[in-house]
Design a protein that fits this description.
By secondary structure, this protein is of the alpha/beta class. The protein is 43% helix and 18% strand.
Length: 418
């Protein structure tokens, strides 16, 4: 895969969101690439329906010859979100990777469309400061290295979103982003919505209530808690509150429930792949419930060493996914390992939703390793507490040997001094 420099490219497929950046890219491509044909590609990964209502008309009005809207919602949840849940991946302790998870499914569909229509190149609207340029282009490299990539933010002389607004204004192209002081960069899908830019660029500035668009303010959430039961089979959610849903519809159901209780808000400063820190606010209501429930069931069925391995796997995969390495042998290996561990994760979990918090209150599994007979603090006939003495002596033997060695060394040192 190479950065595109061929001005004679005839057809380009652009990853199009209908937002400020990609709206400006369409006319820019036509002006700078010999009036090439621009085909807009929009991936429906569960973003608000309002974002898709007039997106084709906007793309055509900006100069695109066509706009393809491809429904990826079920694929996104079933083939990408569920496998990630099995790894337990959480980036830097808080971020549930909502943007990063969506990039591989979008990139794969982007490439397929480009090949289907005979395009000469791919184009994206990622900035030269962000993670997404790496994520998309790494996927392109793995799946279609023969297609050149155009990255306008690395080519044009515009340096800010204010420049883009003026660019569109000068060409009489409609643009909804008109207030530079309140510009927030948002990315939404079925799993989450992210908010960056504007006043959030100052980490000392508390997020205004207008930042949050998906969840109720936890302070204003209902005073009465609500419970939800999730049923898993081999690590995959198959029912919620006793009702069978498709993967996407189950997530929508959980989003609605959790958002009404203010669950899933985080405000973090994260380490971007390219080396700088950025501040972002994320809302992942259903995802927070789903991940909490999964881990609540997981601890019931995995032994200590297996759980420790899964935890290390989750940390490793969080960085791999964040860095855009989905289509790599390492990712395939880690996902396979997580799927094997998840074969035991079957059963029911009940969670309580209350004022921004989700907690596991009930769990059961046919594969449970928990035994009340062994765990009880009352009298039992299966565990002889006297056996613990021998176990402790063996378990602590390295420490005992080290202490003896240290004491002997001290004694020898004293003898030398005398």
């Amino acid at each position: 895969m190479t950065t595109c420099i061929n001005k004679q490219i005839k057809k380009v497929v652009l990853a199009y969101s209908g937002g400020l950046d990609t709206s400006a890219i369409i006319p820019w491509l036509k002006e700078n690439y010999s009036n090439c044909e621009v085909i807009a590609f929009c991936a429906d990964v569960g973003q608000p329906a309002a974002e898709l209502e007039s997106i084709r008309e906007k793309a055509i009005a900006s100069g695109a010859s066509e706009c393809y809207i491809i429904d990826l919602k079920e694929t996104f949840v079933n083939d990408y979100i569920y496998p990630v849940i099995k790894t337990g991946a959480v980036y830097e302790g808080q971020y549930l990777l909502g943007t990063a998870i969506a990039r591989p499914v979008i990139a794969k569909a982007h490439i397929k469309l480009a090949l289907d229509v005979g395009a000469d190149a791919l184009c994206h609207g990622c900035t030269g400061k962000g993670n997404d340029q790496v994520r998309f282009e790494s996927c392109f490299a793995a799946l279609a290295p023969q297609l050149p990539v155009i990255a306008p933010w690395r080519e044009w002389d515009m340096v800010s979103r204010e420049d883009l607004i003026k660019y569109l204004y000068d060409r009489a192209i409609p643009c909804s982003a008109t207030s530079p002081a309140k510009i927030y960069s948002r990315d939404a899908n079925a799993w989450h919505i992210s908010h960056e830019g504007g006043s959030l660029e100052d980490p000392w500035s508390e997020p205004a209530e207008e930042v949050w668009t998906m969840t109720v303010n936890p302070e204003k959430a209902p005073d009465k808690p609500e419970t939800v039961q999730l049923t898993f089979n081999e690590g995959e959610l198959i029912a919620v509150d006793g009702e069978i849903f498709s993967p996407y519809k189950a997530l929508v159901y959980l989003n609605n429930k959790a958002a009404s209780h203010g669950i899933g808000r985080i405000d973090i400063v994260e380490n971007r792949l390219i080396g700088m820190k950025s501040r972002g606010c994320y809302e992942t209501p259903g995802g927070t419930v789903l991940m909490t429930a999964y881990k609540g069931l997981e601890v019931l069925v995995l032994d200590k060493e297996s759980l420790k391995f899964r935890e290390s796997l989750g940390l490793a995969f969080s960085h791999l996914l964040y860095d855009g390495r989905w289509f790599t042998p390492l990712a395939k290996t880690q996902l396979y390992a997580a799927a094997l561990l998840a074969e035991k994760v079957s059963g029911d979990v009940v969670v309580k939703l209350y004022k921004g918090q989700v907690s596991v209150i009930q769990r059961r599994s046919p594969n449970s390793l928990y035994s009340e007979e062994f765990a009880t603090f009352g009298a039992d006939g299966v565990y002889n507490q006297k056996h613990a003495e021998g176990f402790i002596r063996l378990f602590s033997l390295p420490s005992r040997i080290a202490a003896i060695h240290q004491n002997n060394s001290k004694q020898k040192q004293k003898q030398k001094e005398y």
